[in-house]
Amino acid sequence: EAIVELSGVRKSYGVGTAVEAEVLHGIDLRLEPGEFVALVGPSGSGKSTLLNLIGLLERPTSGTLHIGGRDTTTLDEAELTGLRGRSIGFVFQFHHLLPGFSALENVLMPAIIERGVAGPDDLRRARELLARVGLAEAEHKRPSQLSGGMQQRVAVARALALSPRLILADEPTGNLDTRSANEIFELLLEFNRDTGAACLVVTHDPSLAARCQRRIEIVDGRVAN
Ligand code: ADP
Ligand code: ADP
Fold first, then answer.
1. Cα pseudo-dihedral 204, 171, 54, 13, rounded to 10
2. Which of 64, 141, 144, 179 lies 20 to 30 Å from 18 when distance is taken between CA atoms?
3. Span of the secretion signal (predicted)?
4. Neighbouring residues of 125: CB distance < 8 A, sequence distance ≥ 6
5. 151 closest CA partner among 164, 125, 133
6. Which residue out of 24, 45, 48 has the highest number of ligand 2 atoms within 8 Å of its CB and is therefore the one to mutate?
7. Looking at ligand 2, which residue's alpha carbon is closest to its atom 13?
C-alpha cells in the first residue's frame, strides 16, 4: 500500500475571486513506504504547494489524496491535524524553531502537542535524537545560540520526534553552506534507512537530487516525468 497517493489533484488559490488561479493541474503520484524521492522543478512550478497538500496543511481543490491508505478528503480539520501529527514530520527551509525554548524543549514539542505532556520516554527519545544529530552537548542552548546548520539539525530531530512514517522537507538545505547541507541530507538518508520512513525532499541542488532513489519533476503545475 502506498504511503502517499494523489489522483487528479488540482489546487487553485483565490477560488471565487477575480484572482482565482489554478497552480496544480491534475497531479497523479504515488510514494511507496521507504522511498526517498526528490521533488524538483523550476521556481514557481508548484512544489511547495504540492508538499503542503501532502502534508495536510492545505486541501486540494479537487481530486483525492490518500495518506497511508486513508482518504484524507473526507476528514475534518481535527482528524487532519491528528493524522498529520502522528504520521508526518516536516523540515522547512527555515527551521521555525521556537526561539524562547531550548533545543531539547523544541524536540519535545511534538510530543507535548500530541499528548499534552512529555513523558520519560519522550525525554529519552528527544535526547537520543539530539545525540544522533550531534547536539547532545547543546540541549540547553536556545536556537539563537546555535549556528544555522545546528539549528537545522535541531529541526530534523524535532521532525523525527514522533517516528513519522513520512518526512516532508521543503528545501531543507537551501539556507545552508555545502558542508551543513550535506550533513542534513545524510541525517535524512540515515533516518530513511534505519526506520523505513518515506522521504519527499524539495531540492534545487542537482547533486543532492542525484542521491535520491527517484526524482519527480514538477513543471507548470504538472508532473513532467
Ligand atoms: P515552488 O515551490 O515550485 O516555487 P509554489 O508552490 O510556491 O512553487 O508556487 C506555485 C504558484 O502558486 C506560484 O505562482 C505562486 O505564486 C502561487 N501560490 C503559492 N501559494 C499561493 C497562495 N497562498 N496564494 C496564491 N498563490 C499562491
Ligand atoms: P518557494 O519558492 O521557496 O516555494 P515562495 O517564496 O514561492 O517559496 O513561497 C513562500 C510562501 O508564500 C509559501 O507558503 C507560499 O504558499 C506563499 N506564496 C507564494 N506565492 C504566493 C502568492 N502569490 N500569494 C500568496 N502566498 C504566496
1. -80
2. 64
3. none
4. 111, 161
5. 133
6. 48
7. 48
Q: Cα of 117 to ligand 1 centre, how many Å?
A: 36
Tell me, what's the pLDDT at 174? 87
C-alpha cell at 47: 512544489
pLDDT interval class at 225 (50, 70, 90): confident
194 CA → ligand 1 middle, Å: 34
Burial class (CB in 10 A: 0-12, 13-18, 19+), 67: buried
Residues with CB under 6 A from ligand 1: 13, 23, 41, 43-49
Q: pLDDT for 64-110, tens place per residue?
A: 999 999 999 999 999 999 999 989 999 988 878 999 999 999 999 99
pLDDT digits (tens, 9 = 90+) for 145-174: 999 999 999 999 999 999 999 999 999 988
Q: Which amino acid is at 209?
A: A
Residue keyed to cell 521556537:
98
